[in-house]
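Supplementary Methods, section 5.1.

A reviewer requested that the exact input to the structure prediction be made available. We therefore reproduce it here, unchanged from the version used in the analyses.
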Amino acid sequence: MKQSSAAIPTANPTESDMDTTMEAPNAWHAAMPDIAEDAMAPSSFSLRRLRAERLTEAHLPVLRSMHRNERLMATLGGVRSDAETEAYLARNLAHWTERGFGLWILRDPGTDRVVGRAGLRSVNIEGTDEVELAYALFPEFWGRGLATDAARACVTIGRDWLGLPSLVALTLPTHLASQRVLRKAAMAPEREAVHEGRVRVLFRSD
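The structure derived from this sequence is encoded token-by-token as follows.
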């Protein structure tokens, strides 16, 4: 599979223009004719306020830092040991190899600081195979709209690059901030679902 990168142009840094920007993947192919027709998700992409790079083995220290952060992991099952993080990395590297899409590490394009991660992954929810939008940001980057930017980008990649009919996202019923992000990313609550032993609200893209 040929890896590719994409830059999403932003003529004006307003929220309304961000909605237009999120249609960009159709234009990426026109702008980069060397991309094979069977290319899957881009290995990297750029937004006005985020730069995304495909997860690699070199990101293990980043994942360890995320998984040790109690605030970040509070709604994600709690902190993880180094062994659990290594297993998580191995699973997600294999996912990229097998499925052609997965997680990206997100960086601030101005400072190169790691903001968090976001991506798409295959998941089985109550016996049904789905593709899930997943994201997590370090607490110092909360409240800036960056999670919404990342979520919109992932939804667009799933729809326009991968041709998926829909995506799902899972969040706790009490996690209202996450639910706001998903609504802004054109996802709507569909039903409650039990996943990994906990009741979640399942959102689905239109």
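Strands lie at 5-7, 44-46, 51-54, 103-107, 114-125, 128-137, 168-171, 187-195, 198-205. These observations are discussed further in the main text.
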